[in-house]
Recover the amino acids of this structure.
């Protein structure tokens, strides 16, 4: 189920709130969240709920098992169970997400003709697998208590706000809140406000700029690509992916808060970053910190030889790319960032600092190029779009945008560019300070909700990029 | 925290929930969206047995979307916002011949005027060949019936003209297609003339692809001239009847989201002969009654139905003049023929009108030219349909084939 659907907004959400707050027992409330989360996940694709429940259950039992072995000082066997658990988790992810990618590469390398396997990617498998792995690893190293109650572990993994598109909530973050949280009307209201803002970011901004991005990346023939179209498409996708994903995180964080959970922030205005290093401190923070803590640091981090450090970074970014999708363009996208980060850390950072405001343009340009790698369908499209982006001699051709029936989208681009900076948030907070502004703020929220409903009811374009990860 | 801030989420969630309950279970379910020209899903389409394959879930979302309380206001508001966004930039363009896209479909606004039109027809060899082939079919049947007069009249549309080529960087093909048709035909031919934008404004609706009462009257005069060689006996309009305050929102309006002002819908009053009409074999006691259009019952659903005004949902129409007069005319045509039929009847004993797409849809067979011409002893055959019906192939299939002259 999508947050940006009428089913969620007008049926699921009111119902789960009503049922949840009809009891005061936290134990029952957790069960209610679990049941609704299962319904949420199963909605539209019931079969894969079995896979998720089985995976969580297996992790639950094996964690109890190796914990028991650790208590009995049987460390070798505990390590074996621990490793096997991780192998299972990664294996399940690999089977469902990467089988056809692996077959494609085998076929290409060995000139074989092995047929593709008919496997559909279970929604959110990358997210919930990483959440589970964080629990298993932290439990093994004693950073979190082993959860004795299966339904609570299931609630943690399946909790609908963050289940299918993140943020990747670590068990440590909500370990205490699972059994000891205190909901308040203030949190509920603030969470709902955050949800509406996220909904507006998604439905009003992301979906509308997505129309332009989709036109350039999916509809426009390569031989008709122009300087104007390439830049418009890349800018549109740059805005789309940010507003799409950060909106989902906003909605997830807001919904979590409505039920007493405090998730960590996932985005911090990444497009005002002054370097790529800074960008990755602001973009999908739950993923980058996950890789830092569970891959980079265990590999030795930066406390190793320079060659080994380069290898560590390369590995992390190779895996980051691969996590995003079973395709070489995602791998190249990850490695692209890995290489830039290595260069920045080795020597470029000190020069970037001297660039002044130009460092923002430097970062944004590199990020925009990365989205071309990320979103293109094959290398020829990457080549054409990047070539056209530097074909400045063609000049700007607004008529081509008009003829593509896209000119009406310009306000959404403007609002999205503005919304990529902290200006809007700061303004809203300031407005809310005084008495009149307080009501203006709520009027603004109602308008955002009304417009979001308008787009949903009008059958507007409504894709969710991070659903496929 | 203020009380209002506490109440806010609860109030909003209650309103959302009640709206969904009302939309799904209380309100009368609408079957068709005339605004979007499509069928709507209703709660009758929900089948719990489809829960496991995911169909139930997608259906309930579609029903909520389709049946949501006051949804047309949401749809129209979205269209108006998008139109206003575009129009801010369009107003900066000074050239009155620039075509400004409106909505998501094929409709354009001409400059900053209220006139709407389709995309100009682009040239292609395939289209050209289809036109030549059709002309060949008409030539062949004319050759096979030397005692029957065959004529071709083309109601020209604005999208055929090259007026907009230079301002929009286009290379339209309409004029070339007309030349191909004219030179390929071996029977008398003429077409409606649109000399400039003023003609378009005068003879066509600003919100629909059809000609208005002035255009159809001019078409009638053209046809008389083509078939009879003069228009001396032509009917003259006695009066012009426009219903004040009623606006015509045609296909262009519907496709562009009703963002423009409606057009006036007027009719000429004529002194028509007494006649008997049959539509698809049934006696039609009230044919061509444009008052149906002015019946505002169900205004939301009918106000862009040109066909509603001219009873053009039929595949086969027969009108018999009660006056003592001779001559039978067979017209193979499309919706442009609607307002012309009663005027032409003044000059013939019988007029038979075949609308091939509707004919095939209603009678489930192709129209049999040879049998019909022989059986009814037809004197004259007039082919009068727009250029699209010589070549149109779209998502609904090769629709131009329905207009092919298929022989028995």
């Amino acid at each position: 189920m999508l947050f940006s659907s009428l089913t969620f907004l007008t049926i699921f959400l009111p119902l789960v709130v009503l049922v949840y707050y009809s009891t005061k027992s936290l134990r029952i409330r957790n069960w209610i969240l679990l049941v609704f989360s299962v319904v949420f996940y199963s909605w539209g694709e019931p079969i894969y709920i079995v896979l998720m429940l089985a995976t969580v259950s297996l992790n639950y039992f094996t964690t109890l098992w190796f914990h028991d072995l650790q208590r009995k000082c049987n460390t070798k066997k505990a390590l074996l169970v621990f490793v096997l658990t991780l192998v299972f988790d990664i294996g399940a992810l690999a089977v469902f997400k990467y089988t056809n990618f692996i077959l494609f590469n085998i076929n290409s390398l060995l000139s074989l003709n092995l047929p593709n396997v008919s496997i559909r990617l279970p929604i959110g498998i990358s997210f919930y697998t990483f959440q589970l792995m964080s629990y298993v690893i932290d439990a093994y190293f004693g950073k979190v208590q082993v959860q004795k109650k299966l339904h609570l572990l299931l609630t943690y993994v399946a909790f609908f706000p963050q289940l299918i598109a993140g943020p990747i909530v670590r068990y440590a973050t909500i370990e205490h809140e699972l059994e000891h949280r205190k909901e308040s009307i203030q949190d509920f209201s603030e969470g709902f406000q955050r949800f509406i803002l996220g909904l507006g970011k998604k439905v009003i901004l992301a979906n509308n700029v997505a129309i332009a991005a989709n036109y350039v990346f999916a509809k426009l023939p390569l031989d008709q690509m122009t300087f104007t179209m390439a830049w418009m498409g890349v800018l549109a996708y740059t805005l789309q992916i940010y507003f799409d994903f950060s909106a989902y995180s906003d909605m997830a964080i807001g919904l979590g808060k409505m039920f007493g959970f405090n998730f960590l922030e996932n985005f911090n205005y990444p497009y005002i970053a002054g370097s790529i290093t800074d960008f990755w401190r602001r973009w999908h923070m739950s993923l980058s910190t996950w890789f830092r803590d569970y891959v980079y640091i265990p590999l030795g981090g930066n406390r190793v030889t320079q060659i080994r450090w380069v290898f560590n970074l390369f590995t992390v970014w190779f895996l980051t790319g691969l996590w995003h999708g079973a395709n070489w363009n995602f791998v190249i996208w990850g490695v692209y960032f890995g290489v830039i980060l290595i260069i920045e850390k080795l020597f470029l950072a000190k020069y970037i600092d001297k660039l002044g405001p130009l460092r923002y343009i430097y970062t944004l340009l590199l990020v925009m190029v990365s989205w071309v790698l990320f979103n293109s369908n094959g290398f020829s499209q990457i080549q054409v779009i990047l070539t056209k982006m530097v074909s400045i001699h063609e000049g700007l051709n607004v008529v081509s945008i008009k003829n593509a029936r896209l000119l009406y989208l310009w306000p959404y681009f403007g609002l999205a560019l503005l919304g990529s900076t902290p200006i809007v948030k700061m303004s809203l907070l300031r407005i809310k300070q005084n008495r009149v502004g307080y009501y203006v703020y709520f009027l603004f929220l109602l308008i955002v909700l009304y417009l979001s409903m308008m787009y949903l009811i009008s059958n507007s374009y409504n894709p969710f990029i991070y659903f496929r990860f | 925290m203020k009380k209002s801030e506490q109440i806010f989420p609860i109030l909003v969630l209650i309103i959302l929930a009640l709206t969904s309950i009302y939309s799904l279970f209380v309100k009368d379910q609408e079957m068709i969206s005339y605004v979007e020209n499509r069928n709507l899903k209703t709660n009758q389409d929900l089948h719990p047995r489809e829960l496991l394959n995911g169909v139930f879930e997608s259906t309930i979302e579609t029903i909520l979307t389709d049946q949501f309380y006051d949804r047309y206001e949401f749809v129209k508001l979205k269209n108006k916002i998008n139109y206003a966004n575009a129009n801010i930039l369009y107003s900066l363009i000074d050239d009155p011949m620039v075509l400004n896209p409106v909505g998501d479909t094929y409709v354009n606004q001409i400059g900053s005027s209220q006139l709407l039109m389709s995309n100009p027809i682009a040239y292609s060899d395939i289209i050209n060949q289809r036109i030549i082939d059709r002309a060949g079919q008409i030539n062949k049947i004319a050759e096979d019936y030397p005692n029957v007069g065959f004529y071709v009249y083309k109601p020209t549309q604005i999208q055929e003209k090259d007026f907009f080529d230079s301002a929009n960087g286009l290379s339209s093909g309409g004029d070339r297609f007309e030349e191909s048709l004219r030179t390929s035909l071996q029977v008398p031919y003429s077409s409606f003339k649109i000399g400039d934008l003023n003609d378009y404004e005068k003879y066509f609706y600003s919100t629909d692809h059809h000609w208005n009462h002035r255009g159809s009257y001019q078409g009638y005069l053209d046809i008389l001239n083509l078939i009879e060689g003069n228009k001396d006996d032509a009917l003259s309009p006695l009066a012009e009847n426009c219903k004040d305050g009623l606006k015509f929102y045609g296909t262009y309006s519907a496709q562009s989201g009703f963002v423009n002002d409606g057009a006036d819908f007027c009719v000429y009053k004529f002194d028509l002969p007494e006649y008997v009409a049959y539509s698809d074999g049934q006696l039609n006691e009230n044919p061509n009654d444009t008052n149906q259009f002015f019946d505002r019952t169900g205004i939301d659903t009918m106000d862009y139905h040109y066909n509603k005004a001219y009873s053009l949902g039929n595949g086969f129409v027969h009108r018999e003049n009660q006056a003592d007069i001779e001559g039978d005319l067979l017209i193979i045509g499309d919706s442009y023929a609607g307002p012309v039929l009663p005027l032409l009847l003044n000059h013939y004993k019988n007029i038979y009108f075949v609308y091939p797409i509707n004919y095939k849809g209603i009678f489930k067979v192709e129209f049999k030219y040879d049998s019909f011409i022989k059986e009814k002893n037809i004197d004259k055959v007039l082919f009068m349909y727009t250029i699209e019906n010589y070549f149109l192939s779209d998502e609904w299939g090769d629709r131009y084939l329905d207009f092919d002259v298929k022989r028995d």
About this structure: Chain A touches chain B through 46 residues (CB under 8 Å). DSSP finds 20 helices and no strands in chain A.
